[in-house]
Amino acid sequence: MKRKTSAGFTLLELLVVLAVMSVLLTLATLQFNRYSRKSSIEAQVKKLHADLQAARSRALFEKRDKAVAFSASGFAVYSSGSATGAPVDRKPLQYRLVLRADPFVVVFNGAGVSSTEGDAVCTEPADNEAALDALLITPTRIDMGKRNAAAPCSAENITIR
After folding, report:
1. DSSP code of residue 29
2. What are the strands of the beta sheet with 158-160, ordered from one edge?
């Protein structure tokens, strides 16, 4: 008597394949979430840097003081050197900021020089994997950098990149 052979997969083989695929998909999702968070933090720091440079350029071009007021959840740009009245531009942030004071105000004078003496603006959380998570604002420069892990947000704890 000749036995018939089947050209298919058994239920056990299919279940094993599904289990392996679900583990791989879970790992990929975790990696994607980590990558997404990292790139969002870096994008926020780059956007802050660009907006500060734009405020500095406007102050220099118009030869008038411009103020930028940071809070933990956003920042506002003012048309004068005073952070009072209605701001010209207000932007919320996805990740909270660590500031020396809240609000923290940076004023750019008509020559483009800021009122700060090496102040840092850092993005929370401190233990993130982003390559850039902080700004260092000096009178003549705005630099992007990385805060040393678990260190307070200050100029000496930021590595310029």
Report:
1. H
2. 97-98, 119-123, 134-137, 142-147, 158-160
Identify the CATH number of the domain in which residue 80 sits.
3.55.40.10
Buried b (16+ CB within 10 A) or exposed e, 55-76: bbebbbeeeebbbbbbbeeebb
CA distance 114 to 139: 4
Q: Looking at the 3D structure of the chain, how many domains does it have?
A: 1
Task: Provide the residue range defining the domain that includes 18.
Answer: 14-160
Could you tell me if residue 61 is inside a domain? yes
In a domain, 140, yes or no: yes
Query: Would residue 106 count as lying in a domain?
Result: yes
* pLDDT tens digits, one per residue of 117-137: 889 999 988 888 899 999 999
Is residue 4 scored above 70 in pLDDT?
A: no
Residue 85, pLDDT > 90, answer no
> Tell me, what's the pLDDT at 57?
94
Task: Say whether pTM exceeds 0.90.
Answer: no
